[in-house]
């Protein structure tokens, strides 16, 4: 069935139920979290979302482990809303055609004035919003028994809501043995999104957003992360002790008083990079568990780097080292 936007009615009334719901969700990160939804704004995020679904369908088709659920099941589309003027744009229409191939009858057209009232973006030109179910990835779904075959899709499908994970690898539960970032109370949504964006760009596919960190599937974080959510597994609200219990890699923090420079340290191995709160820094819990403390040289007269900038420096110094391994005598 082809997509014919001209045949769709244009919503113009503020009493429309979908309009009312989007108005209450727009910019309300805690309400979005409580309802388990996320709002994707614009063509770029919509494209990243659809690419993730397409890649996952291919992975499921090729899977030999019997999996039948994937990202389409874990983060289904509830509704796509377009403005009347954006509906005529080629880039928006291309997104709508791709959505229509996966789900029928999910598109609603708002007149431009109404759309502007539900879009938190004030600079215009967005023209399209996707309301999706936000994936709920838990520690338990990441740390399945070592004999299990796990994937991003399997983790996103959830595990029945369990948040507790046995910390003893001897019990048969896999430990986290890959590069990851741990956001330890990073409160600013822009910083959280920027860290995730840098992590994804550096090839890191796992992040833990601990209590006190900005809501990771909020509109502002999604916008700042520029699609990183769809190439990473992100565990939200897991307690620090539960995360520490399953880590099988050294914990690294930055410390202005550390004796070793990040440019002198050997970063050619999987590490757990802990990024602390903007004001208080890394919490005492993670400072006590840090196996590696590094300083970022700052020859200028500024006291410290923004946490997102520091994260980018750390992750890309590791990327540089991994691409040009040291020659050891």
Quick overview:
The protein has 329 residues and is of the alpha/beta class. The chain contains 13 helices and twelve strands.
Description:
- By secondary structure, the protein is of the alpha/beta class.
- The protein has 2 domains: 5-133, Ribosomal protein L30/S12 (60s Ribosomal Protein L30, Chain: A), CATH 3.30.1330.30; 139-323, SPOUT methyltransferase, trefoil knot domain (Alpha/beta knot, 3-Layer(aba) Sandwich).
- Helices cover 36% and strands 16% of the residues.
- The chain contains 13 helices and 12 strands.
- The strands form 2 sheets. Strands 8-7-6-11-9-12-10 form a 7-stranded parallel beta sheet. A 5-stranded mixed beta sheet has the order 1-4-3-5-2.
- Residues 63-69 and 145-172 have low confidence and may be disordered.
Number of strands: 12
**What would the average pLDDT be, to the nearest integer?**
85
Q: Termini separation (Å)? A: 66 Å
CATH topology of the largest domain: Alpha/beta knot
CATH homology superfamily name of the largest domain: SPOUT methyltransferase, trefoil knot domain
Structural class: alpha/beta
> How would you sum up the major sheet?
7 strands, parallel
- Gyration radius, rounded: 21 Å
